[in-house]
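Input record, target 12 of the design panel.
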């Protein structure tokens, strides 16, 4: 997703055509008007980027001005929390998904309007948008990971739909047909190209995949993100002016960037860094968890494995996945065949070299095609 945002803006900014210049001015104004101040204590990041950087991507459920996406709720929640970490050498990247029901400490923070928000104690991760906005989500994730996060972006349901449409749809696959009335997702067995509300339903679906948990949904989200990256590259999205303008427009209108990230030179710097990372060196991983004793519907970080993962991120060490460690509801797909999660994955260029990876860490690399596993029953 970051690659889509950064490259779209970068190519447009680089154009010298007068029409493009007018469009860029309009786009820049839209991005600036939607930007959010983080009020973080860390110093202003370098311009442009020259070393390691971290970006927090936050998906808002029940975002303001959003209508027609299910029953109205009392609050806006950060139901998708994804941390992008790019090491200083810019040769690899980690995309870390954190469950919305993860029980963590919520330290004091500063809301987007500058108001101080007191310590929130132990609560699910997804309460922070309602508690104090994007800045408080960043503060909590910084406390959890021990990383400085100077950049963040908040996206809406409508933004997810618009971006899927802008790239011409995203290929996904399932091992069985899915018909889930809760999310509205209806997909046949095998491969499909999804866009619009079907893409949103796929990303939101819980009861139709795996064991019906948020961890299963994260697996599908990772399959979608890796497919989106591959689709954007293979479909020449970045050399197609019409598609690029549609994509940049979708992002500008539906994604709120932190003020630190809304400057064109920052986005260009991110584009230069991320564009040159091979897909097989981009690891999409789930934060390791274990059950939360007081409430079986919640989880907490698994201490030992989480410490290993965060040590890699803090030390800029590449995260390598062990062979066969896919998510809770996806499996490796190859040659048009869907493999069930309990079967042995077909070796690929990525998995053959991962025998010494981090054992027990769930996820996949961006070059791996994987399929969602439908829920039983």
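The sequence produced for target 12 reads:
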């Amino acid at each position: 997703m970051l690659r889509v945002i950064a490259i779209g803006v970068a190519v447009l900014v680089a154009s010298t055509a007068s029409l493009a210049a007018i469009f860029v001015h309009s786009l820049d104004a839209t991005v600036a008007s939607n930007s959010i101040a983080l009020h973080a204590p860390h110093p202003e990041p370098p311009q442009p980027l020259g070393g390691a950087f971290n970006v927090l991507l936050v998906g808002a459920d029940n975002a303001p001005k959003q209508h027609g996406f299910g029953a109205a709720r009392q609050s806006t929640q950060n139901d998708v929390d994804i941390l992008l970490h790019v090491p200083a050498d810019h040769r690899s990247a980690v995309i870390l998904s954190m469950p919305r029901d993860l029980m963590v400490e919520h330290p004091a923070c500063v809301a987007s309007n500058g108001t101080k928000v007191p310590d929130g104690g132990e609560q699910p991760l997804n309460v922070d948008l309602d508690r104090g906005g994007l800045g408080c989500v960043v503060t909590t994730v910084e406390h959890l990971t021990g990383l400085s996060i100077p950049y963040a972006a908040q996206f809406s349901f409508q933004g997810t739909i618009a971006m899927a449409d802008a790239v011409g749809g995203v290929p996904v696959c399932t091992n069985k047909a899915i018909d889930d009335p809760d999310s509205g997702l209806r997909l046949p067995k095998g491969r499909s190209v999804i866009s619009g509300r079907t893409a949103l339903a796929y990303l939101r679906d819980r009861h139709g995949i795996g064991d019906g948990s948020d961890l299963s949904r994260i697996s599908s989200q990772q399959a979608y993100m890796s497919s989106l990256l591959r689709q954007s590259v293979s479909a020449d999205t970045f050399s197609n002016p019409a598609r690029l303008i549609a994509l940049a427009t979708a992002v500008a209108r539906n994604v709120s960037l932190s003020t630190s990230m809304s400057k064109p030179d920052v986005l260009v710097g991110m584009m230069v860094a991320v564009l040159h990372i091979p897909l097989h060196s981009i690891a999409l991983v789930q934060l390791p968890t274990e059950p939360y004793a007081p409430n079986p519907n919640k989880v907490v970080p698994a201490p030992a494995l989480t410490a290993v993962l965060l040590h890699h991120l803090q030390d800029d060490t590449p995260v390598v996945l062990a062979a066969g460690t896919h998510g809770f509801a996806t499996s490796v797909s190859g040659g048009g065949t869907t493999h069930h999660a309990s079967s042995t994955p077909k070796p690929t260029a990525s998995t053959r070299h991962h025998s010494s990876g981090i054992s027990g860490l769930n996820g996949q690399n961006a070059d791996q095609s994987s399929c969602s596993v439908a829920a039983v029953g």
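The longest helix spans residues 214-234.
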